[in-house]
Amino acid sequence: MEGCVFRVLLKLRSYKCICIILLCSGIVFYMSIRKGKQVKAEREWDTTSTPKQKTTTEAELPLKLLSTEKYKSLFQFDGIWLAPKNSCECTKTNRMTVYQLDDYIDKDQIASITERREKEFEEYQRRYPTMTKDAVIAVPNTPLSYPVYGAEVMPLHTIVIPGLGFHGNRTEKLQVILRASLGTLNTLADTSEEVVRGRGGKELTISTANVKLLNHILDHVTYTSTVFLVNAVDMVSFKTGPYLVKFPVTVRQRPLPKLFDPGPDNNLQNLVTVTTKTFLRYHKLHILIKSLRKFYPDLKLIVADDSEHPEKIEEANVEHYIMPFGKGWFAGRNLAISQVTTKYYLWVDDDFLFTENTKIEKLVKVLENTNLDMVGGSVSGNDFKFKIFYEEGEDGSCLHIRSGFYHSLEGFPNCVVTAGVTNFFLARTEESRRVAFDPKLQRVAHSEFFMDGLGNLLVGSCSDVSIEHQNRAPATDSLLVDVERSYNKFRTNTQEQMRFKLSLHYFKNRLKCYTRV
């Protein structure tokens, strides 16, 4: 009996040892897993929260810029390098015509002309300060919120400045200071003078330890314009403690809208007036009128005429305006457009011919459904569209004219966005009047209008609307032969006229050169 008990105890002892061994193994295994997870977590923290230690090679890596050759290979459009630079140049390449404009000014006058030009340019910059405004840099890690764009007030009006706020956790008393230069500051919040000082002045000071009250005051800060300015920017400063930011408040007088009534039926004759300029060629003008009446019998036609011996035009819906003899191409355009009373005008030359493909309605649809100011068509299959690139420089600017277009016009598969078009176009009347045609250009001129309109006119071209040229065969009638001969004397581009135009660009547009392909 005792032997049996002894054997049982031995077995229990052996089981106990096994259990102890298993328990210890489990503890070691658990600790190793826990340690592994901790190491993994520390590594993850190191990669996400702690900057990676740079290698010696990275730490010593020099800070470099791209080489000049590499830099100049970037940022090109149509072969023109459109990157930031202090000066520009017009370099001749294949098939390119380059005009260095000072070559077309008498050398004994270039110094005085340049001096007058630069004086006028300084005046231009003073009158239009937004042309030279500095960049506003946002300050990092600031508890202040403020408007970066969109705070606008009309002269002598008042607005509540949007977006002002403090987003810190300060518990001690805060002092916030706002300063303006072109207006005064106030707040609609009803508080004591100990909290808000300087109401109605150029400097507004807020003192409080209550962040909720501070934000209530800031949320109702007003800006009042005190100077009648048509277009200016006041950089308002916003400061508390070490934090200082600046934000723009634009003072702009909004113009009255000028709307054109299309009538209850939205008829084309209430939307479009056809305009042209004629000189001597009445036989061409009558053919134009006949073709217009075939397709658009009710449209008004305005004719500007600077012929030496004007002929009376007795046609329905035609307004004939007589000018001094030889007054010029652009002066005639100005006169014609000045008499338009419709939303749009269609410009045509006096030797054009309306056809079944001259769909004015299509051009109207483009302008009615886009933000274009002008859209051209094609003349006898040639749409003559071109791009303009402008580069500013300290000593004068550069202009580059290239055929083609910038990109397609969304929603109109046959139309593109460009900078200039042929003499067949539909345009918004008011926008064209703002740019105007320079009457100094009396004879050969076309692209000059689009140069003056750059930055003001958005231009498109549609290839599916066309007009034709009349028969260009030489006249056989002796009277018409004399008319054509006299006309060509004025129409032909002379070296003197070219010299005048290029010298005009030098002064008026402050160009030093321009190129065209």
TrEMBL record:
**MF terms in GO:** acetylgalactosaminyltransferase activity
**One cellular component (GO) term of this entry:** Golgi membrane
Q: Transmembrane ranges? A: 12-33
Protein localization: Golgi apparatus membrane
One Pfam family linked to the record: Glycos_transf_2
What do we know about how this protein assembles, alone or with others? Homodimer; disulfide-linked.
Gene3D superfamilies listed in its UniProt record: Spore Coat Polysaccharide Biosynthesis Protein SpsA, Chain A
Q: Which GO terms describe its biological process?
A: carbohydrate derivative biosynthetic process; UDP-N-acetylgalactosamine metabolic process; UDP-N-acetylglucosamine metabolic process
Keyword hit for Transferase: yes
Can you give the residue ranges of the Glycosyltransferase 2-like domain?
A: 276-383
Organism listed in the record: Eublepharis macularius (Leopard gecko)
Q: What gene makes this protein?
A: B4GALNT2
Q: Which protein are we looking at? A: Beta-1,4 N-acetylgalactosaminyltransferase
Alphabetized UniProt keyword annotations: Disulfide bond, Glycosyltransferase, Golgi apparatus, Membrane, Signal-anchor, Transferase, Transmembrane, Transmembrane helix
Membrane-related topology note: Single-pass type II membrane protein
Question: Which family does the entry's similarity section mention?
Answer: Belongs to the glycosyltransferase 2 family.
